[in-house]
Structure to design on (350 residues):
């Protein structure tokens, strides 16, 4: 089968691409698929998404259990569907769109041609060779599947679709949220992408965002009251996260874990979640928010467990000060009496 496809981006057709196979495979797996899409650009495309097959003289489109579905002229493909020239095929909701430009049946295989009988005509005498002229080197034909891949596609190992694994604190249930958008908003607001149960009081209505920036995932706190933690450290500005990093919405709040095998933690770097100048430890004590708002204090009082947080005034030192002042007053009074007595004696002696 020979099929000609044109990818359309923002309504603009791209160069035509021709495939000559009995089955044309589409997906992210660069080792098995003929039409390959990059994972970072099209995360909604599965590793083995769909196939174009020739059956009974017709070209059929078959979805190979893709996660986000295959659509033919806007209708989701649930069974093998015939494809005609001019049809539009989309791989995943919001995924790449290709238009079918031409469909032809393949010519008879070369083996069948060799089996046919040939007529023996008059033998042709070969032309004499000239020793001074070297024989031309005929390059080997390129491999078909490499030639027909989109430009810029890398033969890299395909990974599962990145996602967030959410563990709810109340019920302990877990669920996965695919990272199929540039910005994933998290909070208690029902209009957000990841809606947290309203019973989770530590979570703000618009708590945090997970964004794709520069080819990596970045967590941004949206001014939440209880803060956002990465690997038990509270962040104060946009912070990158990697595969396996823990994202917690407030101290003791719901826990999310990033699952993206294509972006492992950098080797030899700082532990994820505590880059220099970005994160700060959560303050300890009964009122961490008030202590953080109060800012640094010139003196810290350590109170043992079981005692009041406000230390009692130093009664012993105060009583000592009062006694000292009373002694001074007593000395002054005695001095005054002695002075008056001496003055009287001098006058009487005169």
């Amino acid at each position: 089968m020979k099929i000609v496809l044109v990818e359309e981006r923002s309504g603009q057709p791209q160069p035509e691409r021709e495939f000559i196979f009995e089955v044309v495979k589409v997906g992210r797996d660069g080792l098995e698929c003929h039409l390959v899409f990059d994972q970072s650009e099209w995360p909604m495309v599965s590793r083995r998404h769909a196939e174009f097959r020739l059956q009974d003289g017709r070209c059929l489109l078959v979805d190979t259990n893709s996660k986000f579905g295959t659509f033919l002229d806007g209708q989701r493909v649930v069974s093998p569907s015939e494809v005609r020239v001019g049809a539009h095929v989309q791989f995943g909701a919001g995924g790449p769109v290709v238009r079918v430009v031409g469909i032809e049946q393949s010519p008879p295989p070369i083996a069948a041609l060799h089996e046919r009988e040939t007529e023996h005509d008059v033998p042709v005498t070969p032309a004499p060779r000239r020793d001074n002229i070297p024989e031309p080197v005929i390059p080997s034909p390129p491999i078909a599947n490499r030639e027909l891949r989109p430009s810029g596609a890398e033969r890299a190992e395909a990974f599962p679709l990145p996602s967030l694994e959410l563990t709810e604190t109340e019920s302990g249930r877990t669920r996965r949220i695919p990272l199929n958008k540039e910005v994933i908003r998290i909070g208690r607001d029902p209009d957000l992408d990841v809606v947290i149960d309203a019973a989770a009081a530590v979570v703000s209505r618009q708590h945090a965002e997970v964004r794709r920036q520069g080819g990596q995932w970045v967590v941004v706190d949206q001014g939440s009251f209880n803060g956002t933690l990465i690997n038990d450290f509270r962040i104060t500005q946009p912070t990158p996260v990697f595969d396996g990093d823990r994202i917690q919405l407030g101290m003791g709040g719901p826990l999310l874990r990033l699952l993206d095998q294509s972006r492992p933690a950098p080797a030899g770097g700082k532990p994820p979640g505590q880059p220099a100048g970005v994160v700060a430890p959560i303050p300890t004590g009964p009122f961490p928010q008030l202590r953080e708002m109060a800012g640094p204090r010139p003196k810290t009082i350590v109170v043992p467990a079981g005692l009041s947080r406000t230390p009692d005034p130093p009664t012993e030192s105060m009583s000592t000060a009062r006694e000292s002042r009373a002694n001074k007053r007593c000395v002054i009074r005695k001095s005054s009496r002695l002075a008056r007595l001496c003055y009287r004696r001098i006058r009487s002696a005169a």
